[in-house]
Design goal:
Elements: E1 4-8, H1 12-24, E2 28-33, H2 39-46, E3 50-54, H3 65-73, E4 78-83, H4 88-97, E5 101-104, H5 109-120, E6 125-126, H6 128-139, H7 148-155, H8 158-168, H9 173-180, H10 184-198, H11 203-213, H12 215-218
Parallel strand pairs: 1-2, 1-3, 3-4, 4-5, 5-6
Helix pairs in contact: 2-3, 8-10, 8-11, 9-10
Protein name: LuxR C-terminal-related transcriptional regulator
Domain Response regulatory: 4-120
Keywords: DNA-binding, Transcription, Transcription regulation
Length: 227
């Protein structure tokens, strides 16, 4: 039996792609929206069984405030966080706010679905490997953890970073070109270079990689042509 869901992520393209995949698996997606800041009001008004909430910065202060509000106003709604490999602080913050589960951004759709089903059933939905990794990091913290997001950011030119941000926001080639004041053919070339440098084969993969590594949180947001 399908689950009534709301999918929210700061990057609309990711929310819509995940919603489409879950619909194909028989679930009823009431809404796929961005940004995460509006998740609480949306959930309170639509009352799904589960809210799948994506974040690229689980350790950032206040990031799980929408979860707190959801559990206060609609305690029957289970919240599953979809985020990067969490730090102990991040995964603890998610559950402290009232989340029922935590799933990695790069988890296969089957794993996301299992977490959703467990959360609806009132169970904690978090992979044992995530918990083990969190405890291992607490006991043996890395002296200099690999910063994949920063490494990827340094591979791109400022213009390519802007293109990546726009891709993650769901803009197509025409909109990217208009927003940057360049020809569509030039925008298309920039997109292809970004995909090549990131080592991915599609815009969706590029957006997912950027979100998972926190690259987008470090990038300057593009201004509109009117700004």
């Amino acid at each position: 039996m399908g689950v009534r869901l709301i999918v929210v992520d700061d990057h609309r393209l990711l929310a819509e792609a995940l919603a489409s995949a879950l619909k194909l698996r028989g679930h009823r997606v009431l809404a796929a929206a961005a940004p995460v800041a509006g998740a609480a009001d949306l959930v309170i008004s639509r009352v799904p069984e589960v809210c799948l909430l994506g974040t690229a910065a689980p350790a950032e202060p206040g990031i799980f405030d929408p979860v707190v509000k959801i559990k206060r106003e609609r305690p029957q709604v289970a919240v599953v966080v979809l985020g990067p490999v969490p730090s102990p602080r991040g995964i603890a913050a998610a559950f402290a706010a009232g989340a029922s589960g935590y799933v990695r951004h790069d988890e296969r759709i089957e794993g996301v679905e299992r977490a959703i089903m467990k959360a609806r059933a009132g169970e904690a939905a978090v992979a044992p490997a995530l918990l083990q990794g969190a405890f291992s990091e607490l006991l043996n913290p890395a002296a200099q953890p690999d910063d994949e997001g920063q490494r990827l950011l340094e591979m791109l030119t400022p213009r390519e970073v802007e293109v990546l941000v726009r891709v993650a926001d769901g803009e197509d080639t025409r909109v990217i070109a208009a927003g940057m004041g360049i020809a569509p053919s030039t925008a298309r070339t920039h997109v292809q270079r970004v995909l090549m440098k990131l080592g991915v084969g599609s815009r969706l993969e590029a957006a997912a990689l950027a979100a998972r590594t926190g690259l987008l949180d470090r990038a300057d947001r593009p201004l509109s042509r009117e700004d």
